[in-house]
Amino acid sequence: MTIVNADDQTGLYLLTPPKIDLAVFPDRLKSVLDTGTIDCLQLRLKDVSDDEIRKAIDAILPLCSDRDIPLILNDRPDIAKKSGVDGVHVGEEDASYDEARAIMGEEHIVGVSCYDSRHRAMELGEKGADYVAFGAFYPTQTKEAKTSVTPEIIEIWTTFTTVPCVAIGGITADNLGPIVEAGADFIAVTGGVWNHPDGPEAGAKAIKAAIAAASD
């Protein structure tokens, strides 16, 4: 399986908030997924127990499966493999790509954070990573960014390889234009959707509309 765009435009790769309340979050997520704007979802929880991660997967995976939206788990290939999600995303301080691939197998998605390193991206792309993620492009409140990059890294990457790339870090409907124009395959968003003043559904629609405008 791989992550794919619903159309030929840059796709919207949505990340969950780092903390979620399972009493209300599944219904909230369902409303966002039902906008038809989401191409991939990553479950990224911070400072929670393994049991909480598993319960979140149990609640979220059916929503994604019913809509043919891949669900990617952040950091934990061990849980991802056993839980039935579509893939895993690993950073430099998480499980290595080799370890994640060995656990997940060839049939599952393994994505990697490459920050500002084209060398790391090329190395892992050649090993078989399903996508590479570059960022942060803008300041973000979700996590402290290790690096800062410009759309040029996307332009260079897409010139030399067909491995999909994901742009991440502080991206909103107001600032994504240059990244889309540079050729990013996916825009990863957290706050730009979940913290939108008119609600996450409006946030997702605004991102998708901005992508369409930048693609014209």
UniProtKB/TrEMBL annotation:
Amino acids binding 4-amino-2-methyl-5-(diphosphooxymethyl)pyrimidine: 42-46, 74, 113, 143
Catalyzed reactions per annotation: 2-(2-carboxy-4-methylthiazol-5-yl)ethyl phosphate + 4-amino-2-methyl-5-(diphosphooxymethyl)pyrimidine + 2 H(+) = thiamine phosphate + CO2 + diphosphate; 2-[(2R,5Z)-2-carboxy-4-methylthiazol-5(2H)-ylidene]ethyl phosphate + 4-amino-2-methyl-5-(diphosphooxymethyl)pyrimidine + 2 H(+) = thiamine phosphate + CO2 + diphosphate; 4-methyl-5-(2-phosphooxyethyl)-thiazole + 4-amino-2-methyl-5-(diphosphooxymethyl)pyrimidine + H(+) = thiamine phosphate + diphosphate
Protein EC: 2.5.1.3
Biological pathway: Cofactor biosynthesis; thiamine diphosphate biosynthesis; thiamine phosphate from 4-amino-2-methyl-5-diphosphomethylpyrimidine and 4-methyl-5-(2-phosphoethyl)-thiazole: step 1/1
The protein's enzyme class: transferase
Family annotation (Gene3D superfamilies): Aldolase class I
Cofactor(s) this protein cannot do without: Mg(2+)
Residues the record lists as binding 2-[(2R,5Z)-2-carboxy-4-methylthiazol-5(2H)-ylidene]ethyl phosphate: 140-142, 170
Entries under NCBIfam families matching the protein: thiE
Record family assignment: Belongs to the thiamine-phosphate synthase family.
UniProt-recorded name of the protein: Thiamine-phosphate synthase
Upper classification of the organism: Bacteria, Pseudomonadati, Pseudomonadota, Alphaproteobacteria, Rhodospirillales
